[in-house]
Write a structure and sequence with these properties.
Elements (H helix, E strand, L loop, with lengths): L1 H30 L8 H17 L3 H17 L7 H22 L4 H22 L5 E6 L4 E5 L18 E6 L1
Antiparallel strand pairs: 1-2, 1-3
Helix pairs in contact: 2-3, 2-5, 3-4, 4-5
InterPro entries: DUF3347
Pfam families: DUF3347
Organism: Flavobacterium johnsoniae (Cytophaga johnsonae)
Amino acid sequence: MKNTISTIAAVIIVLFTANTIQANTNKTSETGIETVDSNQLQTVYDAYFTVKDALIKSDAKLTSAKAQDLLTAITAVKMDKLKTDEHTAWMKVVKKLTADAKSISSTTDLKKQRETFKSLSKNTYTLIKVSKSTEAVYKQYCPMADGDWLSKEKAVKNPYYGSSMLTCGNVVETIK
């Protein structure tokens, strides 16, 4: 009798555990938790473009604020939702992207912001080459500043010199 009760209790525990696992699996499928979010990085790219646009305007305070928005976008990325190749690239650049965004946001010295923007652009480029933006992105280069940047427009608007040399540079690559 004692063995029968123990056997029945064990069967009930196994069935209960199996039902719980099945219920959790169904809940995960319904909420889409396991899906990969390929647009997650787009918010980072969009924030990067607002930093670039603020530098074009030579507005150090706006650049600082937009870099803070970029920092928020970077920290919001959920690495477990990235595709494998995106995750690999993200792991290579996330610390530098974060450091650059913090550096730009913590100063209103336009010269320092522009110098740090070179590194920010380089690392954003590494990421965008793997994941692709939702639209064409142009890698542009200014020989005077010896720096690259990314733009959604083909027309050159130089973030390193602003209005003093707005069109200095050229498109060196189109990323689609």
